[in-house]
Design the sequence.
């Protein structure tokens, strides 16, 4: 086991995969300097042909990645801030996600697209989108959502090797988190959730909110409340079995998501449980999300609007007293 | 010249054959649509056959090609099997895309046809991406990218051409300028009246050719492909052409082109022109050409026959091409 | 009352509003010819300055609409097929939806963007997206979803007069539906659902599925099952009160949506009820949506995958027997 | 010329004052950021003041202007109140956007500043849309659109310029070519090395000017604005300039510009150049200019003071600017 940060783990995954497979290459704005941290230094080892600085043309180079992937390459595309996803969205939705299907299996699109979701970065509404649920609604994509260094490395490696297009989201507050990462080559399967903490009384599904969820569970433990924290890790395909099994055990669900509430990943989890876990439910489901308001610039304001430990604790108490 | 011409006789006849195949295929498809056998929308290449064939035959069978919404002609010109194309139009499981893509998404990777994109402009970066893959692999291939005049007003056109240029990708951008995007004339949609004029904004050569002259298109694309293979980067070739029919076969729109304009273009029909050229030079007799036409007709009939005999895909096949391993989805209810 | 088709109703709304308010104008591809039906003929009355054919530049002219709206105009933007939304998405999400907020209320963006959702058009996956839930996830927009001629006319008029940006979705199968439309000027408020049919046993919330829902209700009536059909009409803001009140009465919810199931509007309604209507629920919620698979071209295949009367009947029986 | 110059003395001094205001404001903002009082990212206009001021003062106070991510300088140049700009940077409710927009979204509609967009390129169609509104209303105004060299590689640049051209919209597209997009040199990102060269793809005039010479920028933009007002459509003006600092104040990136290059540009500092020009021509004494500088410093200090005394917005104010009537949202829980 080695200790490293979330970003170091992603960089390790990427450089190991580039070493392993010459078809893997990297594209994006300023990837050589690595303004989005993961790609820093790669150009020294792999050269400028495989680490390509692009113009500000997100749609263009995302499309190039799809084209190159369709004939055998495995591009890792650094799209930086998730708020820029919209300019590249057509290429991800109408090309990357659909081409295998449209062409009756003649093409595969093994590309990875990375988006960072900014929170507590004080960059205002045009830099703070959390659009993972928008991509969940698009069939044909796989969506990974790692939260710890270990999962980041293992999931990125899997996504790069996977023959389907994958979109990775990470929250900017994860970057400096440190954690144990297994030595050597390891991968983590796409589609399996992690039970980050076992519990008996309430299931807390934490979408990009693992850390406040664990803190909340710890605080509630002191009151004798046992919270099971589930980190989905992959949003598509979602590990419905793990979630349903947990709710079958606890009978209660709180689901939190850093995204706005409406049509969020949290809504999807809630709908899933209302449909397939209803008979186990002993209390209303509670969503704890960012409200349906744009993210304001003013730091003291921004800090108040995300799901945090206190809001999660309150929600758990709520479903216990309901 | 005469010697060369004789030596390439077979090529010329093949060019004509493919142009005839496109026209006959399109006529048959229109007939099927009007009979209610084809239900979606469909965009015919009739009138534009010289661009399809001049372009596709100027590159090699294993080079790549991308199309767009008006792209029955492109895979045919690239050498695709008519049977599987027709089966696709008819939504059959034997279709080139197993009935999943239809008219706007014909693709036949076996002849380098990387597929069509129905979002206008969106196949341009795909073509450039194929160019990037070629460059990274050193395979020496090129990619030919068809697009329309209307597509040149999309942002993705700008991004794709700039990227192809700065990275000197082996791509030939071949604009089929039929002067209209649905009902909208290039006169009111584009600040410049020749798309090739935009090439200089990407520091690449731009050239306008007569799109009704298959040899002119062929020569320009061949030169551009040679340049691309030599590592000198992309070229923008603009072929002036015309579609005879409606934008889409099913549409019945208020008039936006004068009868004279349509007629004038029909006077320069690419098939008539090229057939004349062939006969004039003695490359084939009228008799041989009549045979050729019959053979093409028979091929198209056989394609329809093949399609008609093929089953529709069944519901379960939906998931087959969704993911490398679609099982998590397949298990879920349809409702 | 006059009888007209859905499209005629939209055209009437648009031309009446253009007559009423000179700030209203129309932009889009081929709007003069009116390939998307609503704008046909408007150029004759209002001239080419107010009925503007655009190049194929969805992002560009959507952005122009936002700019013009910010200084006083009320553009109606015909974006035609919803699958093209992705190329214009940045302008709707990052500009139209956010500018009022970002600029502290200095700007308003009273624009209307129309998207048609193609179904049974046999146009394959790149022309058959149903992205309304993606836009629901974006704060700052209003989203109208009319299904009948009457509602189409009234809601479009309201949306044009409204000071917020609105996105309208309509299903292509609605276009030729005829119905009664009140004479003269009338509007329908944004944010109020319609109870399309009253019932006692099951609540059926029908998102773009009003017609199969009514047919299902009729069929079930014969078996003595009384279904309450709710047509939301506005997806944002959603009329949560009407939905919750109905579930309070019936105790059962089926929610159907023409979109793919994951993160759909149906998921949102299900989550809402699992959260705030849980105590009334006597059976699991059932979603009836298009499965998470791309829309195939082949007509016999496409026809099988949408929610239809039979699937809705089966789902209602399901929740009744659960 | 001399007479004219004397007559416009006040204007020249005002130009200098605004350039000084930008620099002083930016220096203070950087100081606040380094002290931890400003927490987001921030892009400084230091080195580029002549483009901001030459551009904005070439149009009228009630003309419109759009900015981008590097746009503290633009509203200042357009005449916005420093107090409310500084309060915005510090996230205060008295900020020009009530603390909701911050550094990348300064907007002051009272001086025609229609706001900045942080998505590169996205303010270009907004500017064209303002141009369309002007044209429809016949108000005779123009809109000035600032953008960077990097922005010229976005698809939206292409679409916006084409639309502005075909509709002859009264827009001046003013490129601040500082030759880098973050670390990426225009040499590797753009197929053409002068952005103005792209104007011909939109059939509009393109002109390169010295962006360190405020009068050169002013003259070019004035001519373009006159042309726009006369109904002749948009112009692309490219001002060659340089940012002295990092892309964003907080960033610490590996070196991508040589020390010599940076130094050479600093040798042609726009403020030093223009101050010299003013003194040379006797338009102001050194004393007067020292006073001017003191006054600007005092203004900036007063702006900071104002901001510091202002409260942060409270949670409930979040909903105020979401919708015309935000009540359905306000009632929902925050959690
Ligand atoms: C992004 C996008 N916008 C609009 C459409 C609808 N559409 C399909 S074809 C077409 C016209 C295309 O014109 P052009 O590129 O000149 O090709 P042509 O049809 O003339 O061959 C349009 C507007 C589309 N498919 N994609
Ligand atoms: C669409 C988009 N992509 C990427 C970014 C990140 N980004 C912010 S500024 C910038 C560089 C812009 O370069 P340029 O237009 O030359 O302006 P400059 O910073 O040099 O003033 C980039 C890539 C963004 N804001 N928007
Ligand atoms: Mg055309
Ligand atoms: Mg720059």
Sequence:
């Amino acid at each position: 086991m080695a200790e490293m940060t979330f970003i170091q783990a992603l960089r390790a995954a990427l450089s190991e995969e580039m070493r392993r497979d010459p078809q893997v290459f990297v594209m994006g704005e300023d990837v050589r300097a690595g303004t989005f941290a993961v790609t820093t230094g790669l150009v020294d080892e792999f050269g400028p042909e495989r680490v390509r600085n692009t113009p500000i043309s997100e749609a263009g180079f995302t499309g190039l990645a799809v084209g190159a992937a369709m004939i055998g390459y495995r591009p890792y595309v650094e799209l930086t801030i998730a708020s820029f996803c919209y300019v590249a969205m057509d290429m991800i939705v109408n090309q990357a996600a659909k081409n295998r299907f449209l062409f009756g299996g003649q093409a595969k699109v093994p590309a990875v697209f990375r988006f960072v979701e900014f929170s507590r970065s004080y960059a205002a509404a045009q830099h703070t989108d959390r659009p993972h649920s928008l991509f969940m609604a698009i069939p044909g994509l796989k969506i990974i959502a790692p939260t710890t260094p270990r999962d980041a490395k293992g999931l990125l490696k899997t996504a790069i090797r996977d023959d389907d297009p994958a979109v990775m989201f990470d929250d900017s507050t994860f970057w400096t988190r440190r954690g144990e990462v297994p030595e050597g080559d390891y991968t983590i399967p796409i589609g399996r959730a992690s039970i980050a903490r076992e519990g008996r009384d309430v299931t807390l599904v934490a979408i990009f909110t693992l850390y406040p969820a664990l803190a909340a569970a710890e605080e509630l433990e002191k009151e004798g409340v046992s919270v099971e924290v589930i980190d989905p890790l992959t949003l598509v395909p979602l590990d419905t079995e793990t979630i349903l099994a947990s709710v079958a055990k606890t009978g209660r669900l709180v689901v939190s998501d850093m995204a706005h509430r409406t049509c969020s990943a949290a809504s999807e989890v809630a709908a899933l449980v209302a449909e397939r876990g209803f008979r186990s439910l002993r209390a209303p489901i509670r969503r704890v999300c960012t409200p349906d308001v744009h993210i304001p610039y003013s730091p003291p304001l921004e800090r108040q609007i995300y799901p945090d430990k206190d809001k999660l604790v309150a929600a758990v108490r709520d479903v216990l007293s309901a | 010249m005469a010697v060369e011409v004789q030596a390439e006789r077979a090529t010329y006849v093949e060019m004509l054959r493919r142009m005839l195949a496109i026209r006959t295929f399109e006529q048959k498809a229109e007939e099927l649509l009007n009979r209610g056998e084809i239900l979606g929308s469909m965009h015919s290449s009739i009138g534009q056959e010289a661009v399809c064939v001049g372009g596709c035959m100027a590159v090699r069978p294993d080079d790549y090609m991308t199309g767009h919404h008006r792209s029955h002609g492109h895979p045919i010109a690239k050498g695709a099997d008519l049977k599987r194309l027709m089966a696709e139009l008819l939504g059959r499981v034997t279709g080139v895309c197993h009935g999943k893509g239809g008219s706007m998404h014909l693709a036949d990777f076996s002849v380098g046809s990387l597929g069509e994109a129905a979002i206008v402009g969106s196949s341009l970066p795909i073509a450039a991406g194929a160019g990037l893959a070629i460059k990274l692999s050193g395979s020496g291939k090129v990619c030919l990218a068809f697009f329309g005049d209307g597509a040149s007003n999309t942002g993705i056109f700008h991004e794709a051409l700039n990227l192809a240029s700065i990275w000197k990708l082996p791509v030939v951008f071949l604009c089929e300028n039929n002067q209209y995007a649905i009902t909208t004339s290039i006169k009111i949609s584009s600040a410049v009246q020749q798309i090739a004029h935009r090439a200089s904004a990407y520091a690449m050569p731009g050239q306008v050719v007569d799109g009704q002259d298959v040899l002119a298109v062929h020569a320009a694309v061949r030169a551009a492909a040679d340049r691309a293979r030599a590592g000198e980067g992309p070229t923008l070739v603009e072929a002036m052409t015309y579609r005879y029919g409606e934008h889409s076969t099913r549409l019945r729109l208020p008039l936006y082109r004068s009868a004279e304009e349509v007629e004038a273009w029909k006077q320069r029909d690419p098939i008539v022109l090229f057939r004349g050229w062939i006969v004039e030079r003695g490359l084939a007799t009228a008799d041989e050409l009549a045979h050729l036409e019959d053979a093409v007709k028979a091929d198209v009939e056989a394609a329809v026959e093949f399609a008609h005999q093929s089953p529709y895909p069944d519901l379960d096949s939906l998931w087959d091409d969704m993911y490398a391993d679609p099982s998590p989805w397949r298990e879920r209810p349809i409702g």
